[in-house]
Amino acid sequence: MRRFIMQAAIDTVALLVSLLIFTFPTVPQPFPFGGEGTQVPIVTVEPSDWRWLALIATGVFITVFYAILRPVIVILTGRLLLWSLGLFQVVVVAIVLWFVARISPLHIVGASPTILWLVVLAAVFGLIRMVLGAILGMAGPSAQGEIGGRVWSLLDRLPTPRRSALIENLRLQQVYDTLYGYGIDILLEDTPIAPVRAWCQRVLLGEKNPVAGMTMAGKVRTMLQQLGPTYVKLGQIVASRGDALPDEWGTELTKLQSDVRPVPWEQAREVLVAELGMDPDVMYGSIDHETLAAASTAQVYRATLLDGTPVAVKVQRPNIVAVTKADLGVIQEIARIGSQRLEVLRKLDLEGIVREFAAGVLVELDYGNEAYNAHRLAEDLAKFPTIHIPVIYDKYSTKRVLTEEFVSGIKISNIAGLDAAGVDRQAVGEVFVRSLVKQVLVDGFFHGDPHPGNIMVDPTTGKIMYIDFGMVGQLTSQQRLSLLDLIFSLTNSDYEGVATAMMQLSKKTKAFDEAAYRSDMDKVLRRFLEYGDGGSLAAGLNAVMSVVYSSGLRLNNQLTIALKALIQSEATATALSPDIDIAKVAMEESRAAMIDSLNTDNVEKVLRKQAMRIGRQALQRLPTLESAAWKWLDQFGQGQLTIKIDASDLGQQFGTLNKVGASLTVGAILAGALIGMAIVTVVLVQSPEVASYGPIPGAASLIFIGLLVYALMQVRKFVRVSSEPTDEYE
Fold first, then answer.
1. Cβ–Cβ under 8 Å, residues 406 and 392
2. In whole angstroms, how far apart are CA 132 and each of 4, 15, 126, 178, 439?
3. C-beta of residue 242 within 8 angstroms of C-beta of residue 568
4. Apex CA 720: angle with CA 716 and CA 724, to 5°?
């Protein structure tokens, strides 16, 4: 109630100031071509015995209807809010003011054209409202938990499609409000306004700022947690590059890997019953109702099977599927709009990067994929006796519940804990690096998120235990060879080889200049590896990536994950033992794998498989080869020979010509419309009966201006179509 009263007071003051601002300036009527003596105020408030009471009542109406109408308008027009970079918010305020004016006891008369001055008034009112709300503490972080609610619970149960504009707009509104609240708090925290905000929140609103006293990094981390799993995942990706972050930011964002607020047991129990079909207290021998750990997408409970086997039960957080789909849709829409407007984002193919990220996140939401990943990694790493992958119990696992062997240990980055337990850090580091190298460069199937929170060490046996198999990467044999060539070239300071290997691993855009790329690669590598501080593999890979993204090359998502995994593994291994050389280990492990694969049984198996494949393909093609041979002989006998010419490139050129022609046609139509509207406007303005036409001259002028703006946009589009290729990639 306090918040409502405060907001009503702010709206009343903002309305009063706005009306005063627009009461004194005058404009000609009809605007903008009215003659002398036709000046009227932009806004006129009719006298009333109850003006102040009417003003207060109007302010209350604005507060009420803004809370009701704004969500509806944003749900229907969220795309326009993104497209206009938030400026459409002025239109939202204008609609609210127009609606309130229909029922308000305060009689307000606006100059013509009414729509124009209503939008201007809405812009000024919205700005004053925003400033007052920021100063008085109305805008700020809320104490609510992760975004959700009954609406999202319902949407999560429905078979919602991959993309839904209305659902994404609903989510966009929630994300915008959260970002705005935290953004205002961070922006004003070191200004003289901060004490005023704190006093208003404490005394007038009776609320406590949930992030008071936190650093900026802590506030951002809390904001990401409140926004939900998708944004936590983005924060985790940033945290994985802790070497490039200030210590304070790295520490805070690392908390996103495990320090996430859990949902109550009652909500988790609902998920378990819905997925397993039984009460978890009956299906399991025992299950703790307190969370063992909480992450961005799930939380874990300790339990036992009916035979007493200790297990960990991973339960997906409620409402996560619908919210995540909406988040990914909003992010993809932002990437699309940004790519249309900024050359650098098109060059980086931001749309493609976000699309791959979205696909990976959706795969992680199906725990059936995670169970498969664990089974396969356990098989691939069986050669390492000191590597352990937890056993997955498929009978107790579904798409949203995963039951696996309970394992505990010391986080691999906890050097003090490992030393206290007497663990040989050198041996642990070498085995860890070898296991990851085998995954990436030998098997081509690897743990995609090997940060320290997902790697533990058993203090009694020294075994390394991988956990959380939601994100994995997969590389082809050619990609693995090129990646190995890249590492070999880096360790031998072969900068030409590095440039060639990265070209083999990347996709070239039309903007790619190979000569400039090779020159930049040589210069950057020499600077960082020969004359800089870094001589490690991670430093070299980071330097290489900086050149790749600035030159017009693009790595696919799987290669990016592989490079990130190698960089993370070196950072972890170096912390365990500074003497570990990951490049040397990579070469040794790859050589050993190659020697193992070249035994008699494996060679015979490969040859037999290849022979059978060739035989099957030959049998499938025999009828085709026979008919082709007879057809060729018939043509030869008749003195005819058919030659096929590939003219696929011509289609692209015709596509460009079609676009140019369409743009020229639109331009010609607009030019005619502009000339016609200009003539109509001049005739109306010069007519001696102009005053009798009322708002018609003003409307004609607005239409003329609108057509002019649209024409300029079409010209800009025409220039872009003419200057850019239709296909971005070769």
1. no
2. 14, 12, 10, 18, 57
3. no
4. 175
Q: Is 155 exposed, middle or buried (0-12, 13-18, 19+ CB in 10 A)?
A: buried
Residues 6+ apart with CB under 8 A from 697: 30, 33, 681, 684, 685, 690
Please state the φ and ψ torsions of residue 303, each to the nearest 5 degrees.
-150, 175
Given a cut of 90, is residue 42 above it in pLDDT? no
Q: Domain spans of the chain?
A: 2-135, 265-316+366-472, 475-580, 655-723
Tell me the helices (H) and strands (E) count for the chain, helix number first.
27, 17
Residue spans of alpha helices (H) in 140-289: 150-157, 165-188, 193-199, 216-227, 229-239, 247-254, 265-276, 280-283
Q: Where are the beta strands (DSSP E) in 75-165?
A: 108-110
- How is residue 711 written in tokens? 């024409």
In this structure, which topology does domain 265-316+366-472 adopt according to CATH?
Answer: Phosphorylase Kinase; domain 1 (3.30.200)
Question: Over the range 670-683, which residues count as b (16 or more CB within 10 Å of their CB) and which as e?
Answer: beebeeebeebbee
Structural element, H or E, at residue 473: strand 472-474
Only one residue has tokens 């339960």, namely: 315
Average model confidence (pLDDT) across the chain: 78
The predicted model gives 206-211 an average pLDDT of 84
Query: Between vectors from CA 152 to CA 149 and to CA 157, what angle results, nearest 5°?
Result: 130
Entry pTM: 0.67
